[in-house]
């Protein structure tokens, strides 16, 4: 089954609000100002990468405080071609990212990314895009234990990163640190936002010293461990229940950022010898990834389809396949740690496209 069919199936069944389906671009007031995205039936997530000399969308050397993990040029990446690709949906063109327009549309609003370091990657891309597309804007930064916020003061827009590796809670108890699959306590802070973009996946298979919990609590029982995909599914279900009971859809628009793929297994992209992304300098041609979609992406779609109430639409930013094609987009060894990283993404780079897609989704829905 193609990805496009899948997305449409998922969202048709969770929502009667056909007009704001991500897979159907319909004529809305917003779209009239962007005639190129008016075509009906265009799946934004089905397409290919094309070389575009006008890219990247921002200059990383002018974006302050890009995390050391993502600043590939600063840490010596010699090939620059990876910066030059634009996502081209099959049925329509994406509008070019317009930071001023973006900020005007979300004037006075709070945008919050909630998730792991991939969310941070996504957040930093948006901050860089907005900062550089709106010259002279007055920007302030506030950091606390779990959040980093950038405020675009002239527009009253805040863009926050809320770090939550699992979305559900980890609590210190007598037995040790417990990952509580049935509990979300951070939600009070999330509810204040007008646009929420969630993500969790990266940490679900952590084990050994890097695993930040000792036990899992599931249905009131404490266990040492369990099937990790089941645990992920359970936590997403808890998150879906949180959305159903706590989100006010007339205030808050909710997105789920699809699974961001890693590239450590060349068999998936027809280079059986490759054990990482270190020699990758170009995307895969075409629209399909030989390795197929990861199981986790299926789990996400299943939860959005089955567990989200129709009155609480959650829009999937279905970035998995388009990012799978970008085996060239990771930092590889060009980061401050010189470790091989084929999980995160260089900035500028692939997450800029995720934000272009977020921008289009906001154009459609507001
Ligand atoms: C930026 O913000 C500062 C402090 O809030 C203010 O003094 C200054 O006038 C602002 N500048 C612009 C260009 O809005
Ligand atoms: C930050 O974390 C510390 C230690 O966990 C805690 O005592 C403090 O209240 C937290 N601050 C905020 C603003 O949440
Ligand atoms: C790499 O991917 C292939 C195809 O998906 C799979 O059969 C194989 O087990 C994977 N290898 C490793 C080491 O994960």
UniProtKB/TrEMBL annotation:
Pfam families the UniProt entry points to = PC-Esterase, PMR5N
Domain Trichome birefringence-like C-terminal, chain residue ranges per copy: 94-359
Tell me where it resides. Answer: Membrane
This protein's major location comes to membrane
**InterPro entries, per the entry:** TBL (IPR029962), TBL_C (IPR026057), TBL_N (IPR025846)
Keywords on record: Membrane, Signal, Signal-anchor, Transmembrane, Transmembrane helix
Gene Ontology MF terms in the entry: O-acetyltransferase activity
Coiled-coil residue spans: none
> How does this chain sit within the bilayer?
Single-pass membrane protein
Family, similarity comment: Belongs to the PC-esterase family. TBL subfamily.
Q: What is this protein called?
A: Protein trichome birefringence-like 38
What species was this sequence derived from? Sesamum indicum (Oriental sesame)
